[in-house]
Amino acid sequence: MNYSLMKITGGLTLGLLVLDAVWLAVFAPFGLAVADLRALAVTVTAMGIIALVCMLVRRRLAGDGSRVAGVLRHGAGIAGSIAATGGFVMVVTAAMAVANYLMMTTALPLRDEAFAAMDGGLGFDWPAMLAWVDARPLLGRVLVAAYASSLPQMMAVLFVFGALRRADRLLEFTALYALTGTAVAVVAMLVPAMGAYVHHAPDPALFDGFTQAGRIHIDTLTALRAGTFGTLGLNDAVGMVSFPSFHTVLAIVVTYVFRGTPVFVPVLMLNALVVLSTLPEGGHYLVDLFGGAAVAAGAILLVRKIGRGGRAQVPATALAAT
Fold first, then answer.
1. How far is the C-alpha of 45 from the C-alpha of 22, rounded, in Å?
2. What is the Cα–Cα distance from 33 to 236, expressed in whole angstroms?
3. pLDDT tens digit string along 81-110?
4. Residues near 91 by Cβ (< 8 Å), separated by ≥ 6?
5. Residue 2 backbone class (left: φ over 0; alpha: ψ -120 to 50; beta: rest)
């Protein structure tokens, strides 16, 4: 049982929650929608209860050698694993979203000029890339779909490894998710940017084949930096990060978690498209992708180091404690 990884993941999550609570209480830069907080609490509590009941069922039937008992134990293990990990991910996601919004209120100088200059130094012409992709509607649709696949892929991690009873991979994923999400929020606070759509201000005709994913944050980020943002609804939270690209981080993390499985190659191919999609659909600079790759690689190396000495065989229901 990899208690070190569990402690770090749980401690980091608790730290985020404390940071959010103290920052909101002391500085009150904006409010939180109570209804969304209540809904989150109810959902996470329900998932915790499911995980606990599943653990009790498995213990109660531990000595029963009948086929029915075996099926029930197996089903309880799967359900408990998914419920425990899913509840944890929901808490981490909410804590990271609030922290990201809070950190953007620091309103440090925007670095769009620097990021655009770095792209230029690498020989990358962002407006030309956007025009090239937009002129190829089929490619554009593929990239839009790939960009939107990040959340379903996260859910796939929970259900696939929950069904396989691979608590080691679930713990690994939650640790990487918490570590990278926190790191991305901190880096984005220190070197904030509005994104390539704002800096390059392309003609709308050049991105009519894409959604507003690369522009949806603009008004919110502007209000946060100006101190005029009102209330954050957790269900309406949007990403405030340009550098480093969190979509790139998730693409690498999910691919890594699926290593050694029969679907590794399809997952790798899909996430290669996700990384490419962050440029036209996500409105990221090219250097944002390199930043995201660096964060993901650093987190993976750290988690591997902590988990060295053997695979973390953690009962799925134990994840509920984090």
1. 23
2. 10
3. 999 999 999 999 999 999 999 999 999 999
4. 13, 17, 40, 44
5. beta
Contacts of 15 (CB under 8 A, 6+ apart): none
CA 58 from centroid of its chain's CA atoms: 31
Cis peptide before 137 (omega within 30 of 0): no
Residue 119 near residue 285, CB atoms below 8 Å: yes
Q: How many CB atoms lie within 10 A of CB 113?
A: 11
Amino acid at 270: L
Measure the CA–CA gap between 77 and 167, rounded to whole angstroms. Answer: 10
Contacts with 7 (C-beta within 8 Å, 6 or more apart), sequence order: none
For the chain, what's the residue count?
Answer: 322
Extents of the domains making up the chain: 3-321
Two structure tokens written together for 144: 């839009």
* Cβ atoms of 246 and 239 closer than 8 Å: yes
Q: Shortest CA distance to 54 belongs to which of 85, 80, 19?
A: 80
Tell me which amino acid residue 253 is: V
Q: Is 84 within 8 Å of 320 (Cβ atoms)?
A: yes
Q: What is the pTM of this model?
A: 0.91
Reported confidence tier of residue 316, pLDDT bands at 50, 70, 90: very low
Please, what is the average pLDDT of the chain? Answer: 92
Supply 27's token pair.
């500085």
